[in-house]
Amino acid sequence: MSTPKTAVSTPHAPAPAHTFHQGVRKGPFVQVSGQGPVDPATNEYLHPGDVAAQTTRTLENVRAIVEAAGATFDDVVMLRVYLTKREDFPVMNEAYGAFVSAHTTNGVLPSRTTVFTGLPREEMLVEIDAFAITD
Predict the structure, then answer these.
(1) How far apart are CA 128 and CA 37, in angstroms?
(2) Span 8-24, mean pLDDT?
(3) What angle do CA 109, 45, 126 make, to 5 degrees?
(4) What stretches of the chain show up as alpha helix (H) in DSSP?
(5) What pLDDT does 96 receive?
(6) CA-to-CA distance for 14 and 53, rounded, in angstroms?
(7) How many CB atoms lie within 10 A of CB 67?
(8) Which residue in 36, 104, 97 sits closest to 65, CA to CA?
(9) In this structure, how many other beta carbons lie within 10 angstroms of the beta carbon of residue 110?
(10) pLDDT in tens, 67-99
(11) Collapsed DSSP state (helix, strand, coil) of residue 52
């Protein structure tokens, strides 16, 4: 018997702008759609030009969706970071490290891939998605 696929939705992360959900859960698996530095209350992009602040805001959105799926940040096994500029990597990495370390309580940090690419909005310096597995 197959486990149903369910949409994950929370007001604590930005509403999707296109034809996808904030996240999807199927059994113990949770996939969070790519998130950016958007205020969930206003849907405004925040912190223009500040990759550290954008990284933190983006990870807050990811965490909100993970939690809305009934998981915790400790359940996150993989994060994918998309950056527009290679020179932003050290600053992103510092903000990322601070956030992930603060929200991972079991001492096992998620795996990560970082990709340099163009993003859908000019003001976006970073986008992050996540994959979590719950018990």
Answers:
(1) 9
(2) 93
(3) 35
(4) 51-68, 89-103
(5) 98
(6) 16
(7) 18
(8) 36
(9) 16
(10) 999 999 999 999 999 999 999 999 999 999 999
(11) helix
Q: Which residues touch 5 (CB under 8 Å, ≥6 apart)?
A: 24, 25, 26
Tell me the CA distances in angstroms from 59 to 4, 11, 13, 82, 111, one per residue in order: 27, 15, 10, 12, 14
Dump pLDDT digits (tens) for 23-66: 999 999 999 999 999 999 999 999 999 999 999 999 999 999 99
Q: 3-class SS at 51?
A: helix
Strand partners, 79: 112, 130
pTM above 0.85, yes or no: yes
DSSP 8-state symbol, 100: H
Here the tokens at position 94 are: 């510092």
* Residue linked to tokens 């970073």: 126
Instruction: For the beta carbon of residue 132, count every other beta carbon within 10 angstroms.
Output: 27
Contact 47, 37 (CB under 8 A): yes
Query: What is the spatial distance between Cα 122 and Cα 126, in angstroms, rounded to a whole number?
Result: 10
At 18, the pLDDT band (50, 70, 90 cuts) reads confident
